Recover the amino acids of this structure.
């Protein structure tokens, strides 16, 4: 995709995950943690793609 796209998607997932973590439902909180981690991974992928010139 590209650095900007991955960073935007990652940030969106982190925000959604943080919101879900505020729930009183334990399953929703766990889903929020997983979604936040997914967002962090997407942002890392975007940083790597940016450093490598989008060749991966």
């Amino acid at each position: 995709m590209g650095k900007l796209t991955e960073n935007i998607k990652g940030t969106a997932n982190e925000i959604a995950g943080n919101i879900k973590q505020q729930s009183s439902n334990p399953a929703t909180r766990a889903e929020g943690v997983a979604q936040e981690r997914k967002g962090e991974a997407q942002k890392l992928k975007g940083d790597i793609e940016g450093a490598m010139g989008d060749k991966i």
The longest helix spans residues 26-51. The CA atoms of residues 24 and 32 lie 12 Å apart. The chain has one domain: 3-51. Residues 3-51 form one domain.
